[in-house]
UniProtKB/TrEMBL annotation:
Record-annotated membrane-spanning stretches: 50-72, 84-103, 126-146, 158-177, 197-220
Compartment(s) of residence: Cell membrane
Organism superkingdom: Bacteria
This protein's record includes keyword Transmembrane helix: yes
SUPFAM superfamilies: Aquaporin-like (SSF81338)
Pfam families with a match to the protein in the record: MIP
Species this chain originates from: Geothrix limicola
Topology within the bilayer: Multi-pass membrane protein
Protein name: Aquaporin Z
UniProt cross-references to InterPro entries, sorted A to Z: Aquaporin-like, Aquaporin_transptr, MIP, MIP_CS
Similarity field: Belongs to the MIP/aquaporin (TC 1.A.8) family.
Amino acid sequence: MNKRMAAEFFGTLWLVLGGCGSAVLAATFPGVGIGLHGVSLAFGLTVLTMAYAIGPISGCHLNPAVTLGLAVGGRFSFKDVPGYWLAQVLGAVAASALLYVIATGNGSAIGGFASNGFGDHSPGKYGLGAAFLTEVVMTFFFLMVILGSTAKKAAPGFAPIAIGLCLTLIHLISIPVTNTSVNPARSTGPALFVGGWALSQLWLFWVAPLIGAALAGTLFPKLEE
């Protein structure tokens, strides 16, 4: 279990550093900013690369919602959920700490620091209801793709590609709404450094993704029957 938790720690660190780092450092860089499309691709690439790197060790969850969805779907032991969640959150916090040091290295303030939010803190000013629905639905389909692409009948070796592209698509859809979470650990790391509004809205980015993941974990096994 220690090796699996270590893999989840470093994998989640890479996801947050790569995904949120692209949003904080490169999205709006003058002249060459990568924008929404680049940030979306960055998040997808972090999962794709780590799936090949640590998938054989821990399964490469990198996300408390993924861990819960796999447990509900009968693919993961519930007794191991707390350990995975701890490793994932710690990895996200470590990545956010590294990103904070880098982002402030030129004297800049961190601003929103890629935090997730709704209302005034949504990129498109979307309200609570739209944000909650978006996070539930996006996480639901993320888990459906994960469960399907890793099923015994699925073509071997291609799951990381499908999962990485799915996460890219999810970001293309939902960055304007919530800045895209679908991952409570990813939301927690930046929120701890922003404080204030980010922490007060963090509950949504735990509750909604976990609901979406649990729904997918419940439904998908019925489709396989």
